[in-house]
């Protein structure tokens, strides 16, 4: 359709992974978890869900920009800045405003209200959603929550991500509103657990792609080091690695 063509201008086709998830991402409201190797094109899958949400708010050919907010949570400020630039360029033809909201990039309340898509970090969005006064209207406008690098759940900032998801799910249940959640992750072993945590239907919204889907194939070779002496083991490993 026209919205998709404007946002993906210059792209002739989707890659293999994007084509597989297209129907669910672009034509349903299902929560999704995408596990795929780095460089597999997960950002464009996020774009498909963003465009689906925008299409829900088109009336008589006009996008009702004050009806929704899209939140993209990136683990690092550098990635947040990169994603802000990417989505800004892609969504500019649609008149959608994308802004970065991190510790380094503060926005006034009026700027946030004028913005349709916010790219933020877990800690910053955690602070925003914890405020009970003033930002209630903002959180109620959120229709799509994109969590990048979900596999970081087991690291230091995991509890922050958990609280974000829990707060979002509680809001869905208490207000009976619809907030779609998209999780993007590198390949991880317990993807079923993460899917359950994000309330993803494993038969519809869970997509797992292993190393065979890497854009550049990765070869793996296992070499056994038989020495029992720890120091000699390290020396032997260094020799093998530098040969």
TrEMBL record:
<keyword id="KW-0378">Hydrolase</keyword>
<dbReference type="InterPro" id="IPR050474">
    <property type="entry name" value="Hel308_SKI2-like"/>
</dbReference>
<protein>
    <recommendedName>
        <fullName>Helicase ATP-binding domain-containing protein</fullName>
    </recommendedName>
</protein>
<dbReference type="GO" id="GO:0005524">
    <property type="term" value="F:ATP binding"/>
</dbReference>
<feature type="domain" description="Helicase ATP-binding">
    <location>
        <begin position="23"/>
        <end position="206"/>
    </location>
</feature>
<keyword id="KW-0067">ATP-binding</keyword>
<dbReference type="GO" id="GO:0016787">
    <property type="term" value="F:hydrolase activity"/>
</dbReference>
<dbReference type="InterPro" id="IPR027417">
    <property type="entry name" value="P-loop_NTPase"/>
</dbReference>
<dbReference type="GO" id="GO:0004386">
    <property type="term" value="F:helicase activity"/>
</dbReference>
<dbReference type="GO" id="GO:0003676">
    <property type="term" value="F:nucleic acid binding"/>
</dbReference>
<dbReference type="Pfam" id="PF00270">
    <property type="entry name" value="DEAD"/>
</dbReference>
<dbReference type="InterPro" id="IPR011545">
    <property type="entry name" value="DEAD/DEAH_box_helicase_dom"/>
</dbReference>
<keyword id="KW-0547">Nucleotide-binding</keyword>
<keyword id="KW-0347">Helicase</keyword>
<dbReference type="InterPro" id="IPR014001">
    <property type="entry name" value="Helicase_ATP-bd"/>
</dbReference>
């Amino acid at each position: 359709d026209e919205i998709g063509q404007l946002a993906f201008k210059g792209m002739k086709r989707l890659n293999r992974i994007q084509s597989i998830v297209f129907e669910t991402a672009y034509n349903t409201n299902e929560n999704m978890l995408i596990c795929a190797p780095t460089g597999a094109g997960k950002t464009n899958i996020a774009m498909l869900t963003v465009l689906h949400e925008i299409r829900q708010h088109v009336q008589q050919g006009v996008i009702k920009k004050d009806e929704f907010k899209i939140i993209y949570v990136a683990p690092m400020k550098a990635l947040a800045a990169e994603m802000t630039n990417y989505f800004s360029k892609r969504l500019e033809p649609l008149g959608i405003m994308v802004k970065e909201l991190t510790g380094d990039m503060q926005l006034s309340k009026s700027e946030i209200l004028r913005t349709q898509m916010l790219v933020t970090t877990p800690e910053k969005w955690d602070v925003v959603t914890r405020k009970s006064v003033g930002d209630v209207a903002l959180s109620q406008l959120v229709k799509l929550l994109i969590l990048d690098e979900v596999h970081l759940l087991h690291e230091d900032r995991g509890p922050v991500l958990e609280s974000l998801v829990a707060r979002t799910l509680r809001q869905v249940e208490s207000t009976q509103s619809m907030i779609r959640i998209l999780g993007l992750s590198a390949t991880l072993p317990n993807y079923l657990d993460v899917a359950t945590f994000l309330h993803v239907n494993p038969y519809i919204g869970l997509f797992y792609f292993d190393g065979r889907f890497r854009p550049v194939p990765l070869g793996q070779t296992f070499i056994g080091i038989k020495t029992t002496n720890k120091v000699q083991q390290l020396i032997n490993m260094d020799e093998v690695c530098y040969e």
